[in-house]
């Protein structure tokens, strides 16, 4: 009796761990697939923290981003449906066995403030991430040890169909969001956002206090200084680092400062308070920017000049790269300088186009989906693309469910019906034999 009861408890525990891991892996893989460039940037942060940037080919972080999203999502689906149990539980326990000590190191050394395990959808501190991974590691060991207790939701007749559909679904989602823009935008520059409000600190909120340390050298000896004890000019600057001295309120929009390249003037307020429309061509690195749509970009600039709208190209590129871009593309629009990380956060396309009015993000386009002459048939005031018309979050969730969950439910229902029909047929044959 006791053995039967313990067997039941182990089965319940194993399946509870299985569903927990499934939900976490599906969510983690999905948000990475929705924003593959964001995951790529996070991987590059890891490489910088390890000092491996020069050793890794430029294409590898993006490839790793795609593979990570696909592996996590598919493993989550396999766990959810209880298919490929031996392979799935082995992969999950290996992944958690690697990630748990890695996040412990991140928590202790803090080279990166956010591990990026859930992209921009959910931000966790390094210690919160480590705690989460400890819990998942326990669950992973449990499902690996008692994998035979996992109850499958489909028979082996249909498990290949679920596995194949999960693979192609997440691959298609990743490629679509890379070519266009993320289906779900969790960043502070999503359509409909008032950038000025995002920069505000609520009354009474205490801002974060930072401490900048300077590493200087003299006579071959390096020493660290603060602003209070900064030495004389006999010391040579080597490096600097900024650390959080006291954590306070962090506004969603930070480091949003636009400097005109031509004269060094700050035009941030001028752009954010413009009651007309402003086009912002965002290209964080012009040397890496896609120039396949240069003619269309130049036509957009001509359109903005004709109708009296502002048009700026925002970049963090050096002057030499800006000059090279102008020579290659014939660009006549003005350039402004901005923080590289801010530009990557604003739009996941290089280049990408944003439309602002009174500091509100009206619309965004990737380089593969820029508005052309067939769309820009009138002034922006009279066109639907210049109105905030973002699909609601719930509407997007329904679309995602329609394209993924409903087909999987359909497969499961067909499997149940087929299994019922098959059993009924076998039972009828058995009855006929006994007669």
TrEMBL record:
It comes from Phocaeicola sartorii. NCBIfam families: BT_3928_fam (NF045576). Keywords: Membrane, Transmembrane, Transmembrane helix. It is a multi-pass membrane protein. The lineage of its organism: Bacteria, Pseudomonadati, Bacteroidota, Bacteroidia, Bacteroidales. The chain crosses the membrane at residues 12-31, 51-81, 88-109, 158-176, 397-418. The keyword Translocase does not apply. It comes from the Bacteria. Residues 15-143 form the Methylamine utilisation protein MauE domain. The keyword rRNA-binding does not apply. GO terms for biological process: methylamine metabolic process. This is DoxX family protein. InterPro entries: Methylamine_util_MauE (IPR009908). GO terms for cellular component: membrane. Its main location: membrane. It is found in: Membrane.
């Amino acid at each position: 009796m006791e053995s039967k009861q313990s067997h039941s408890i182990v089965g319940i525990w194993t399946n509870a761990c299985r569903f927990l891991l499934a939900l976490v892996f599906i969510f983690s893989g999905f948000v990475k697939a929705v924003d593959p460039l964001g995951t790529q940037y996070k991987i590059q942060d890891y490489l910088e923290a390890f000092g491996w940037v020069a050793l890794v080919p430029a294409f590898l972080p993006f490839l790793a981003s795609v593979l990570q999203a696909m592996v996590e999502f598919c493993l989550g689906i396999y766990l959810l449906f209880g298919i490929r149990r031996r392979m799935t539980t082995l992969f999950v326990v290996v992944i958690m066995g690697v990630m748990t000590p890695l996040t412990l190191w991140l928590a202790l050394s803090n080279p990166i403030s956010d591990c990026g395990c859930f992209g921009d959808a959910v931000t966790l501190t390094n210690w919160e991430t480590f705690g989460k991974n400890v819990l998942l590691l326990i669950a992973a060991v449990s499902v690996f040890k008692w994998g035979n207790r996992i109850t499958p939701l489909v028979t082996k007749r249909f498990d290949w169909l679920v596995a194949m559909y999960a693979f192609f679904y997440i691959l298609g989602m990743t490629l679509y969001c890379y070519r266009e823009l993320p289906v779900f935008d969790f960043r502070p520059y999503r359509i409909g956002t008032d950038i000025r409000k995002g920069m505000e600190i609520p009354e009474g909120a205490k801002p974060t206090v930072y401490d900048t340390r300077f590493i200087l050298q003299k006579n071959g000896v390096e020493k660290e200084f603060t602003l209070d004890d900064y030495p004389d000019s006999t010391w040579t600057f080597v490096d600097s680092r900024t650390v959080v001295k006291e954590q306070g309120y962090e506004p969603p929009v930070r480091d949003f400062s636009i400097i005109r390249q031509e004269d060094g003037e700050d035009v941030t307020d001028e752009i954010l308070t413009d009651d007309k429309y402003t086009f912002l061509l965002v290209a964080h690195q012009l040397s890496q920017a896609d120039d396949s749509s240069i003619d269309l970009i130049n036509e957009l600039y001509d359109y903005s000049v004709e109708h009296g709208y502002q048009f700026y190209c925002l970049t963090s590129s050096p002057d030499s790269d800006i000059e090279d871009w102008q020579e290659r593309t014939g660009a006549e629009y003005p350039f402004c300088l901005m923080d590289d990380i801010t530009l990557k956060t604003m739009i996941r396309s290089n280049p990408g186009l944003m439309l602002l009015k009174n500091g509100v993000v009206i619309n965004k386009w990737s380089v593969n989906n820029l508005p052309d002459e067939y769309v820009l048939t009138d002034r922006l005031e009279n066109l639907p693309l210049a109105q905030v018309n973002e699909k609601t979050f719930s509407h997007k969730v329904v679309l995602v469910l329609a394209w993924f969950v409903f087909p999987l439910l359909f497969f499961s229902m067909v499997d149940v019906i087929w299994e019922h029909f098959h059993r009924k047929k076998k039972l009828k044959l058995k009855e006929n034999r006994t007669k």
